[in-house]
Amino acid sequence: MSRKPRVVSPEEERLWQRIAGGAKPLEKKQPKKIPHEFPKKRPRPEKREIFEIPDFRVGEKAATSLAAMPDASRTTIRMDQRKFTRMKRGKTAPDARLDLHGKTASEGRAALVSFLFNAYQEGHRTVLVITGKGRERSDAGPIPQRPGILRQQLPQWVSSTPLNQIVLQCTEAHPRHGGSGAFYVYLARRR
């Protein structure tokens, strides 16, 4: 059994209007605006590759990363194929050379940047940068050190700013010009 809804009489309506008309609000607040559209969800970042560090014991020598070593067979050639082939065979002499032996990493990078920009301004296209192979330390010590820090860092330096604007390619030199202890750096044409 359901009840019928009660209907308000005209006299009750007038009484309510008289009471409600004299009422004052306690605080004047603006009504909250409810957005009609909900904000879009942020896209979740892609899962990153997890880098695992191999086990290491005090006194062992750390293995050098092959990914940091340049390899001409893996890189695409960004310069003249004929000149690249002649240079890799040791048939052509570089236009200029820089020897970084005995320099620290920060000194070596500063010298490299200065040398490459000067060579670019002079119109040289192929330069030889001698880093040295690095030496194996006889005393391993408790902290492992990478041999040949300049040799490992040079490909990264030339592929980052500001050198990536003028450097086309960096490859290991022919044994006649220093082999694995030197690099050919191919510069873009001067504009």
Give a description of the structure.
The chain has 191 residues and is an alpha+beta fold. The chain has a domain at 93-135 and 146-187: Ribosomal Protein S8, Chain: A, domain 1, CATH 3.30.1370. Helix content is 25%, strand content 11%. The protein has 4 helices and 4 strands. A 4-stranded mixed sheet has the order 1-2-4-3, covered by helices on one side. The chain is elongated, with a radius of gyration of 36 Å. The protein starts with 9 loop residues before the first helix and ends with a strand. Residues 65-74 have low confidence and may be disordered.
Ranges where pLDDT stays below 50 over 5 or more residues in a row are: 65-74
Structural class: alpha+beta
Instruction: Give me the strand/helix succession.
Output: HHEHEHEE
Query: Can you tell me the CATH class of one domain?
Result: Alpha Beta
Q: How many helices?
A: 4
Residue share in helix: 10-25%
Largest sheet: 4 strands, mixed
Beta strands, count: 4
Overall shape:
elongated
Strand content: 5-15%
User: Order of strands across the biggest sheet?
Assistant: 1-2-4-3
Radius of gyration: 36 Å
Mean pLDDT: 77
Q: What is the straight-line distance between the termini?
A: 95 Å
Q: What is the CATH topology descriptor of one domain?
A: Ribosomal Protein S8, Chain: A, domain 1
CATH structural architecture of one domain: 2-Layer Sandwich
